[in-house]
Every structure is written in C-alpha cells, then in structure tokens.
C-alpha cells in the first residue's frame, strides 16, 4: 500500500502518512464520535511496519490531553492508529480532541461506567496488529518510541514492554523494566501497563475485568502470563508519567485488588505474605507521615532520607537512573 497522493489529508503526523480508502465509512452507536474512519479512511499492517493501535481514555483532563495526543501524533513511525475514548468531558477536553479530529482515527465521547469499561471500549474499536493503552496525562517518551520497537523488526512474541520515566525520590528517573515477568509473577504485575504493546487478538480475547476499579491492568497481565503468553522486554523507554496516577490516589483499594488478583493466579503462602508485608508497610508509613507532619519535622526527615539513604535503596529496588533532561530526545 502506497502513501496517498493528491489528497487534502495532512501527512505531517504519524496517523496520516499511510491511509487507504474504505468502502464504507465507520458508523457507530455512540452519543458523539468522529475521526478519520468516519470520513472513509482506514489502515492496515505492512511487511516490517505493523499497524500499532494506541488507545487513550480521558475524562475532564483538559490540562493534559493535548500533550498526550501530540506525543502520539509526533511519532516518526508512520503506521499508527489512534483511538481516543472520552467519558463525556465537560471541561474543554472534548474541544481539544475535536481540534485534532482529522488526525485521530476514531474518537468517542459519552458517559461510561469507569476506567476499564473505557479501556475495553477502545480495544473493541482498534483495527491494528499491536495495541498500547496510553492514559491521558502520560506521554510517549520521545518521537522514535514506535520506530525503535517496530520498524523493520521481526517479532515472535505476544507482547513487548519497555522502561518508563517516573518520579522517584522527587526526581525524574528511568525505571528499568524487569527482565523476567514469570519467575516472580506471584508478586503481581512486574511492568507498567503503558509500556506494554500486546497482540490485538489477545487483548480483544481477554480484555480488562471491570469488577476491578484500580488494578484491572494487573489482572490482564497476570492472566496472560499465567496462560503462557510470551512477553519480551525491549531496551526502549516507552513513556513518561504525568501527575500522580489513579492507583496511587486509591492505594488501599489498589493493595486489596492486587492481593486478590495475585491469589487468583498464584495462590499460596508466599503470595499472601508478600502482599501483607506491602500493605502493612503502607499503613505504617502513612501513620508515621501524619505524626511527623503534625510535629513539623516530616519535610526535614524526607530531605535527609533522600540525601543519605533513599537514592541507594530506591536504585536497588527499581534499577533506575536519574534523567538528564538535556540529553533527552
């Protein structure tokens, strides 16, 4: 399939470089929707250039949606499908999405029943070979992420995952992905879901269990791992985290769901002890933080810890290196 010629479509962005006319424009049963597919455009995988589908879900995040969108559109890789699921935003988010409608393959805006319902809606709508879920407020790390992973590569596994740029000890750091997801799978999901690219047929088959409010992504990954699907680490920093995530804000619920998920696939005493230890640590730390804050010494202790112990401890735990922003692409 050749790039389109003689078209008014702008080829500046990753989603507009390889387009083909569809016999029938997309028609859906949604409150509000639009995008390239509704105008009669489609895409397909090519040799050495598989179609990579990205799903972003959002509700009322006008401050971050444009940066997330542009991190996808500005990829140098030229075979990208982008689906945006909006949960009936009222703060101007939808207006930003519509601003980029001629570069987004499909956007949908309507009320939904929660995060993982929205994930599943997006998964149902993608047509690519590989699927990534990129939350609003998170951003692809640089413009060559997709090209570095997929361009001309022979891929013989079911999923690929990389590293992430996250805030650790108050500094942006590259957190290295675990080499092996299987040996310690009983500890839970050992990757960050935004770094994961999974074959479309797998994610469409299993989807996300909507009984979970925070950890449906962990359930999906452990389900795949426990069933023997093969995921491989790639030496690529995939994305950069934005503001504090939903699971961090609802940490107690996340702990509960993570424990239940781990037990459902890897039941046993070591699974229970590992999750109990993590839960007790979180509870004790938060009590300590409240007491130290009340007496006005928490900030001092935090600075002291980070300066003398924190960096060493966290490096051993997360295998990270501090980002030099000047050298970031």
UniProtKB/TrEMBL annotation:
Glycosyltransferase 2-like domain residues: 53-136
Family annotation (Gene3D superfamilies): Spore Coat Polysaccharide Biosynthesis Protein SpsA, Chain A
Source taxon at top rank: Bacteria
Identification of the protein by name: Glycosyltransferase 2-like domain-containing protein
Organism: Candidatus Magasanikbacteria bacterium RIFOXYD1_FULL_40_23
